[in-house]
Design goal:
The chain has about 270 residues and is an alpha/beta fold. The protein has one domain: 3-Layer(aba) Sandwich (Rossmann fold), CATH 3.40.50.720. Helix content is about 50%, strand content about 15%. It has 10 helices and 9 strands. The strands form 2 sheets. The chain has a 7-stranded parallel β-sheet, with helices on both faces. Helix 1 (about 15-25) packs across helix 8 (about 215-225), helix 2 (about 55-65) packs parallel to helix 4 (about 100-120) and helix 3 (about 90-100) packs parallel to helix 5. The longest helix has 21 residues, at about 140-160. It is globular, with a radius of gyration of 19 Å. Bound molecules: NADP nicotinamide-adenine-dinucleotide phosphate. NADP nicotinamide-adenine-dinucleotide phosphate binds near residues 34, 49, 77, 128 and 181.
Length: about 270
């Protein structure tokens, strides 16, 4: 096992917790930031923006020159667009995918040659419960995480023969900067206003009582180190939601899901 790990987005939240946890467990941790960040002793910080090809290539080159091939990549960097799907412009959706999806692809393409060459690698992509359970008013974010789910599953099939695994960690609502870092759509359509306000209030409450980011870090550590890793590591209420989604009748599930987000009773079609 190669204990050199690269984590994107360690300035706060899940990335920061994961960096601290892995460093404490003897990993050599390279963590990426976009601006000056303090309070991360024992983590080697690298400047990187996942939306920028050159920045990704330069950072991976710098790390491999220092530490040799990377053993683990944790694609954590991400944010959410907030608004109804009809309110979201194509430009806002493209920007969302540029970070949450193409950012992951850039990182993977940059580290894979080294992983294939050494015959070992673990890629952990941070998805979300919204990656299998899309929520109202975060539709494009959910679509980006669904894309990551499909992408990772295919990637895992393709790289296993090289000793590389691609895995998913699926956090539920987690107490981080995620909400404050979210980007509201520029367009607000009056018809959605009342319902959107109610849903966002419900989401705020869910996030406030959310999972400790350390729990997500523990799941990421498991994915990086398990002898026979699972493809998916749901966290917090994730396992229960994933089970219910599969086995509770669709109409019943949708009803209770809508209630949780304080959506109106659906009108008969
Ligand atoms: N919190 C939740 O409820 C939750 C639930 C499920 C999944 N997730 C996922 O967990 C991951 C981490 O989010 P978090 O909750 O820990 O939120 P967070 O505290 O806002 O952290 C997000 C991190 O991503 C970085 N980042 C954003 N865009 C970037 C870019 N273009 N290039 C490089 N870094 C970038 C941020 O860096 P800056 O400081 O430079 O902005 C920050 O370090 C995300 O993928 C998110 O979708 C979160």
């Amino acid at each position: 096992m190669n204990k050199t790990v690269l984590i994107t987005g360690v300035s706060s939240g899940i990335g920061r917790e994961t960096a601290v946890l892995l460093a404490g467990k003897g990993f050599r941790v390279f963590g990426t930031v976009r601006k000056e960040t303090h309070g991360l002793d024992g983590i080697e910080l690298v400047t990187l923006d996942v939306t920028d090809d050159a920045s990704v290539k330069d950072a991976v080159r710098e790390i491999t020159a220092k530490a040799g091939p990377i053993g683990g990549l944790v694609n954590n960097a991400g944010y959410g667009v907030i608004g109804a799907v009809e309110e979201t412009s194509v430009a806002e959706a493209r920007e969302q995918f540029e970070t949450n999806v193409f950012g992951v692809m850039r990182m993977v393409n940059a580290v894979l040659p080294g992983m294939r060459e050494q015959g070992y690698g673990r890629i952990v992509n941070v998805s979300s419960v919204f990656g299998f359970l899309p929520a109202p008013y975060m539709g494009i974010y959910g679509a980006s995480k669904h894309a990551i789910e499909g992408y990772t599953e295919t990637l895992d099939h393709e790289v296993r023969d090289f000793g590389v695994r691609a895995l998913l960690v699926e956090p539920d609502a987690t107490r981080t900067n995620f909400e404050s870092a979210g980007k509201a759509t520029a367009q607000n359509i009056g018809a959605y206003a009342v319902q959107k306000a109610r849903v966002l209030e419900a989401m705020q409450q869910i996030l406030k009582n959310g999972t400790d980011p350390r729990e997500v870090a523990i799941a990421i550590h498991k994915a990086l180190t398990a002898a026979s890793p699972r493809l998916r590591y749901p966290v917090g209420t994730g396992p229960k939601l994933s089970f219910m989604r599969r086995f509770v009748p669709a109409g019943m599930f949708a009803g209770s899901f809508r209630k949780q987000f304080r959506l109106d009773e659906p009108r008969p079609a």
